[in-house]
Amino acid sequence: MTAAAETTPTPHPDVRHAPWLSTRPRLVVASAFMLFLELALIRWTGSNIVHLSYFTNFVLLGSFLGIGLGFLRVGRTTRQPYYSPIVLAILVPIILLFPVTVDRQTEGVLYWTSLSTTGPPAWLILPVIFTAAAIVLMGPAELVGRCFPELGRLEAYRYDLIGSLTGIGLFTALSFLSAPPVVWGAIVAIAYAVLLWPRTVWARVALAMPSLVIVGALGVETLTAGALWSPYYKVTYSHAQWNGVPLMDISVNGIPHQQATPAKSKLEWEGQYGLPYERSTSGKLDDVLIVGAGSGTDVSIALSKGAKRVDAVEIDPKLLELGRTYHPDRPYNDPRVTTHVTDGRAFLERNSDKRYDLILFALPDSLTLVSGASSLRLESYLFTQQAMEAARNHLKPDGVFSMYNYYRENWLVDRLGSTMQAAFGHKPCVDVVSEAGQQAVITSGLSAATQRCATEWAGATAQTPPPTGDDRPFLYLKDRTIPQIYIITLGLILIVSMLAVRAVAGPYRRMRPYADLFLLGVAFLLLETKNVTGFALLFGTTWVVNAVVFGGVLVAVLAAVEVTRRFRVPSLPVMYGVLLGGLVLAWLVPNSWLLGLPLPVRAVVAVVVAFLPIFAANVVFAKRFADSENGTLAFGANLLGAMVGGCLEYLALIVGYQALLIVAGLIYLMAFALLPRNARIA
């Protein structure tokens, strides 16, 4: 299929409002705005409604629904989508007035520490946010969709992708600059004005009012919260004293996270912080690695114990910044300390030659998930058997590895103990310091002779789940199942989505000719999730890696569109064959093998393996989309499929991430079976 074969564009019959931007720049701006608004909503709602720190794709699913509905709404009305800024102006104050902290006692969900719940109950606030996200995103999606009939199919898709890349680039730049939400709100207000600017003065005033509410509310939050906005959290802190000892309490996304206190006081109050040093038979501390260094207390303790050189690894730059500025001991100003802003597992995989007397995983609880991955936390890859083997490989002959945290459930302590036993080949030292909250320290020497245990660990019970691995890194999920709370929530989302599609788009038979495009959307989202989680393991769960992967996916899609527009590519059956071959290749090349490659080679091979099926899948989509009779309906069906794919992501909790390739392959085969007969020979 070449560009000459694209459907002849027809102007959109919008007689009420003549846009002042021509079609192409309007499409780029609207697409950039759509993706920027989606990312901003995910990021900001999660910082105030703590449930969303653990269900980040809840807003993502609402966004996909809204974007799909926006495309399906094209042609059914000529009114401008002024409902979008109005609903957003209602949502922002509601969230600010009724923030929520989460009750994290539910076993089977991916967290464990207990906090009381404040604010509206989950059954009330989560449906409000899901519905609002869908309505808000439906507006810019409708504006994007109205541009599609005015251009050739693939040309419109091309400018849509360029706009999406612009949107993700802008949000990434603001994350790098630690811009507060008021900046995001100002950009959103400007975008609404550019895309919806009406002719009459009163209409302009009516449009400006919601924008002023959005910017004003976010401005008040920025000025009153005293927050630092890292790429992961809204970080708030306060200074206090206890018995004359200076303290700094740090909360992230409304949850108490850590406390910066002098090393001497910390050791007096909570003796478990000294246990990793007591369990070593050598007592050497020439080289120490601390993962989860945070605001610096664990680093300060290591220095007080006599560490000569400390590598302090922390994924969040703002936590390091707070520690460098305000920690009473000023550990990060000590010349013995070298800081590294990166993911702990990535640091271990990249620095293959460095060896340590002590490696310490210091309370590495991120309290949030990787954006774009349904169940992957920032620290998930730290607690797998392969991660502990990587730590073992970085120990000196008489070195020790230790971790401590509050684990709440007995089986969590035993699971981590058995994981360390599998990695090191002998039982670790397990010190349960406090039965309340299961405060525990787990330590293992490179050999049994290099560790000194107070008592022998009894070992894991028969009820203890097996160690987690890189393919299923779900430490806090006891059974190989999808927790009931997820099943109920996703079921309700699908029911609401079906009703919304019927109400907005009319009878389902309108989308029946595009059932294969719907399935392409389902499978592609699973493929994207596999790549996000795979690159997080290979290169780190940092926001930079996440942004690069999403940007890379969009570049691969754009490349597929350009190739399809400019060259005669093979028929759809051949391209489906290339796609399935790419999935087989991705299945045959395990991440464990890639981790053993030098970093530059690993990057090249990982990109080829990951993006070959993505490229082929989008050539398939581009060829099929170019021949579609109704471009906006076809695109909307594909986007709704992506929303269903977002629900199917949770299958990884049962089958693991690698098996998502099989699920995606089966869905692609179903899409091929539903391919119209005339499309098979195009």
Main features:
682 residues, alpha/beta, Rossmann fold, 2 domains, 23 helices, globular, disordered N terminus
Topology:
Layout: H1 23-48, H2 56-73, H3 83-97, H4 122-147, H5 153-176, H6 181-196, H7 201-225, E1 228-229, E2 234-242, E3 245-252, E4 255-260, H8 263-269, H9 275-278, E5 287-291, H10 297-304, E6 309-314, H11 317-326, E7 337-341, H12 344-350, E8 356-362, H13 385-392, E9 395-406, H14 410-424, E10 429-434, E11 439-445, H15 484-505, H16 515-539, H17 543-566, H18 572-588, H19 591-595, H20 599-626, H21 631-648, H22 652-655, H23 660-673
Parallel strand pairs: 5-6, 5-8, 6-7, 8-9
Antiparallel strand pairs: 1-2, 2-3, 3-4, 9-11, 10-11
Helix pairs in contact: 1-2, 1-4, 1-5, 1-6, 2-4, 2-15, 2-21, 3-4, 3-7, 5-17, 6-7, 8-10, 13-14, 16-17, 16-20, 16-21, 16-23, 17-20, 18-20, 18-23
**According to CATH, what is the class of the largest domain?**
Mainly Alpha
Oligomer kind: single chain
Assign a percent range to the helix content. 40-55%
CATH architecture of the largest domain, by name, is: Up-down Bundle
Question: What would your notes on this structure say?
Answer:
The protein has 23 helices and eleven strands. Helix 1 packs antiparallel against helix 6 (181-196) and helix 2 (56-73) runs parallel beside helix 15. It has a seven-stranded mixed β-sheet, sandwiched between helices. The protein is of the alpha/beta class and 682 residues long. The chain has helices at residues 23-48, 56-73, 83-97, 122-147, 153-176, 181-196, 201-225, 263-269, 275-278, 297-304, 317-326, 344-350, 385-392, 410-424, 484-505, 515-539, 543-566, 572-588, 591-595, 599-626, 631-648, 652-655, 660-673, and strands spanning 228-229, 234-242, 245-252, 255-260, 287-291, 309-314, 337-341, 356-362, 395-406, 429-434, 439-445. Helix content is 54%, strand content 11%. Mean pLDDT is 87; it is low at 1-16 and 102-115. The termini are close together. It folds into two domains: 3-9 and 19-226 and 479-681, Growth Hormone, Chain: A (Up-down Bundle); 264-365 and 385-450, 3-Layer(aba) Sandwich (Rossmann fold).
